[in-house]
Amino acid sequence: MSKLLIIVTAALFAGTASAHTIFQKLYVNGADQGELTGIRAPDYDGPITDVTSNDIICNGGVNPYHQPVSQAVINVPAGATVTAEWHHVLNQAAGDSADPIDSSHKGPVISYLAKVPDATQSTVTGLQWFKIYEDGLTASTGQWAVDRLIANKGKVSFTIPSCIESGQYLLRHEIIALHGASSYPGAQFYMECAQLNIVGGSGAKSPATVSFPGAYKGSDPGITVNIYYPPLTNYTIPGPAVFTC
């Protein structure tokens, strides 16, 4: 077996039993909103792999959860910086080498918003989503968004657009792990939805939206991709362009 094949094989199997992750806390302008407050988090940390499934929306919706779903709605000023925090499992213990996610799980980090009548509503199908954040590969260094997330102890920060309408929204925050993505289905999608009430938005601009499922295809170059060989010189993050004010 060649040295390259050994490295790739090791990467594919690294952390398979303990590599997963859950988005389980949100900060608003640095203020901790509390563990699982306003977040539709399951107690299982595994991925979604089928981009045509409704589970790709908010990790299964409300029904499959094995714990009570938070009914809190987090107040967020338009223009605020929010920080999502990921951990391998709920009630994370110290010393877990796979926390917040196994380092083999290279890939992008993405955030979307969808306006809803009620952020606690159980139905998540048929919503219209717009992308507000993405971070992928820095080809010059070989560093992925997930590497930066791990270095920041599971935290990712991004801005809520100031020009959107005030109102209730779902925030869909996502990691796509590409260590097994050379064929489809192979990419692993980790996402949870947070329940937000955005205040002070100007409503000056209406974003173009996409649907989930539908925004991603298994054939997308950012979903079916060999990240090991040949070395990537660029990476196309799936989904629409990031909405800006």
Automatic annotation (TrEMBL):
Its EC number is 1.14.99.56. It catalyses: [(1->4)-beta-D-glucosyl]n+m + reduced acceptor + O2 = 4-dehydro-beta-D-glucosyl-[(1->4)-beta-D-glucosyl]n-1 + [(1->4)-beta-D-glucosyl]m + acceptor + H2O. GO terms for molecular function: cellulase activity; cellulose binding; metal ion binding; monooxygenase activity. GO terms for biological process: cellulose catabolic process. It is an enzyme of class 1 (oxidoreductase). PANTHER family: ENDOGLUCANASE II, PUTATIVE (AFU_ORTHOLOGUE AFUA_1G12560)-RELATED. Has a modular structure: an endo-beta-1,4-glucanase catalytic module at the N-terminus, a linker rich in serines and threonines, and a C-terminal carbohydrate-binding module (CBM). Lytic polysaccharide monooxygenase (LMPO) that depolymerizes crystalline and amorphous polysaccharides via the oxidation of scissile alpha- or beta-(1-4)-glycosidic bonds, yielding C1 and/or C4 oxidation products. Catalysis by LPMOs requires the reduction of the active-site copper from Cu(II) to Cu(I) by a reducing agent and H(2)O(2) or O(2) as a cosubstrate. This is AA9 family lytic polysaccharide monooxygenase. It comes from Dichomitus squalens. The lineage of its organism: Eukaryota, Fungi, Dikarya, Basidiomycota, Agaricomycotina.
